[in-house]
Amino acid sequence: MRFEGKSVVVTGASSGMGRQIAYDFAKEGATVVAVARRAGRLEELAGQVESDGLPGKVLPYVGDVCSREVNEGMIDFAVEKCGKLDVLVNNAGIMDGFEAIGDISDERWDQVFAVNVKGPMFAMRKAVQVMLGQKTRGNIVNVASIGGTNGARAGAAYTASKHALVGMTENTGYMYAHEGIRCNAICPGGVETEISGSMMSGSGINQFGMGRAMAGLDKEIRTGKPEELAAAVLFVASDEASFMTGACVKVDGGVSVN
After folding, report:
1. Cα four-point dihedral sign 164, 167, 168, 169
2. Can you give the pTM of this predicted structure?
3. How is the chain split among helix, strand and coil, in percent rounded to 5?
4. Cα separation of 44 and 234, whole Å?
5. Which among 168, 177, 183, 252 counts the fewest CB atoms within 10 Å?
6. In which family does this protein belong, per the annotation (predicted)?
7. Is 176 annotated as catalytic?
């Protein structure tokens, strides 16, 4: 019950890590504004939280995180319902097709940056403005990637976008440390999600880039489970991590040190 009475916003909450993160916050007593484009999935999540008798609740908020209006609206919605914003989790993200720089298209680059960089920027900007006006302040957790700390495990667009998200995390953590606002990132490796499943199917994947990104990986290192990543997010968001800000925590089973 670390988040009893807390107001939390989680993007990309309709599946995978985001769904688990939202569920686990509700399990610990939070009111969670769950954000995604798929309304049906969000309603299913809210229904499961209620039927499972969790102490918290999920409030669906349908929208595309590429939009400034959606990012600002989801935070306004949380404040309207709870009177405050305690935690923002920028989890929504998309992969590229493992294209190396020689193969990347303008369209793919813009799409990846719209979701992975511009969306979190809109959300963080609004969240900081709200938190500065609260006595309780708050904190931000960005779901980045080892692609944002190591340069060889994804395509050019995804790698660059996650480096940008790591940079925003570190900068924000420093800029507002004296104001009591924390900002940290979780950097997963491979995780069992819809994205990883479609990636492994080879649909729309650049085989040259995929081969280079996977070269030299220890195939005995397992992929993570959404609940393992959610546990890391909740720890970083909790008061147990009160001395952490500007940190980028690798949660990858050892892939980045392979």
Report:
1. positive
2. 0.94
3. 50, 15, 35
4. 22
5. 177
6. Belongs to the short-chain dehydrogenases/reductases (SDR) family.
7. no
